[in-house]
Design a protein that fits this description.
Elements: E1 4-13, E2 16-24, E3 29-39, E4 42-46, E5 49-53, E6 59-63, H1 70-97
Antiparallel strand pairs: 1-2, 2-3, 3-4, 5-6
């Protein structure tokens, strides 16, 4: 399986690390608005979801996409995390090679 992270936006609020968009070349599928979470040294991806109110008025989320087989979900998660790491490394190297901006004289 091959997955590319086409965009990553860092948020860093509590366990929520950021948003990621993915491209799966084999199927031509693009998935926008996945969420990256981290807690107790573990990272995972949540698929895009819509918010709704539960019976007691609490916030709940219903995913737009889901895997029927948990093994497929784990495989996607593994490759998606690697794709995010690769994208972040590319972004870091790009910002390291950019020349410093000139100071604005006003």
């Amino acid at each position: 399986m091959s997955i590319e992270c086409i965009k990553f936006q860092s948020v860093n609020k509590g366990t929520f690390i950021g948003y990621a968009d993915f491209y799966i070349p084999k199927t031509g599928l693009e998935i926008y608005g996945c969420q990256l979470f981290q807690k107790d040294g573990k990272r995972w991806i949540n698929m895009p979801a819509r918010e709704y109110a539960g019976e007691q008025g609490e916030k709940k989320y219903a995913p737009h996409l889901r895997y029927r087989d948990p093994a497929h979900k784990e495989l996607f998660n593994e490759y998606a995390l690697k794709a995010i790491d690769k994208k972040c490394a590319e972004l870091a190297s790009q910002s390291a090679t950019k020349p410093p901006m000139e100071e604005v004289p006003f």
